[in-house]
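lol so apparently i was supposed to do this last week
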Amino acid sequence: MQLLDGKALSQSIQLELKAEVEQIVAQGGRPPHLVAVLVGEHPASASYVRNKMRACERANFRSSLKKLPVDIAQEDLLAEIASLNQDPEVDGYILQLPLPAHIDEQLVTQAVAPEKDVDGFHPYNLGQMLLGEDSYLPATPMGMITLLERYGMETSGKEAVVIGRSNIVGRPMSVLLSRKHPQGNCTVTVLHSRSQNMAEHCRRADIIVAAIGQANFLTADMVKEGAIILDVGINAIDDPKAKRGYRLVGDVDFEGVKEKVSAITPVPGGVGPMTVVSLLMNCLKAYKTGAGKALEK
Ligand code: NDP
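anyway here it is w/ NDP bound
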């Protein structure tokens, strides 16, 4: 079994990005600048944002955290977004989800300038992806494709099953795995909460992407011998032995399936770090295409 070590790979990509930034700075440019907008004090969100800021530091990016109060009015959040859109010193930014219930997530996501949408959530970028045109790919699916690519895994002609159909993970991953691309060209089945015969579908799959948010959902009896497993889930389960009283597990019963599969991502240390480094890759791309300058008023 090959462990698809997203943590190690993301660190080596960060070093590549760092070298590129050093070159930009040596030639008189400024480093790329990523801004994270965090509304409220959601503990998991705060920890995800911290990881993103740390990755920026490691790659010599400039990073800023914009903390906004949980009860911010929607129009004030939209004003913040408009100001980030127009700031020539900001190349890309993310709105950390989830947003508080009184905020219309779709409306504010659409207010992000597509040129600075390094999370790849804007309908323009999702549409470009669907058309196979250049765009910012959504960070988590992009991270998984990069992982397959860097581990030299061609997927053409394979049967892929994606469990979960969210707009940020499952659905875009199903699009990427079916596009004409060395890490695409799969025959893709998308499963969700209304799917029947889940185990049967999974047992046919050469590649399974588990993105539902249920601890240890995918068990050994659902997996074909030699399958490749990408585990997106992040679930906290009680563990009295752990320092914080809980530990993080994925959607896959790692211990149960590990002897059966040919390759698998661990949780933590698999898809999560690849998501973070994808943001940086998208931000460098935004910097190079002059997203900041283009939108300056
Ligand atoms: P959502 O809650 O938005 O979507 C979950 C999807 O799973 C839905 O399509 C839902 O179906 C489906 N689903 C839920 N339960 C079942 C079930 N029992 N059987 C079949 N399908 C089911 O989640 P996200 O896509 O945002 O995230 C999924 C997981 O990945 C979470 O644990 C999240 O924390 C994690 N995550 C990890 C990231 C990383 O970087 N590692 C990044 C983003 C998310 P339906 O549509 O019918 O409701």
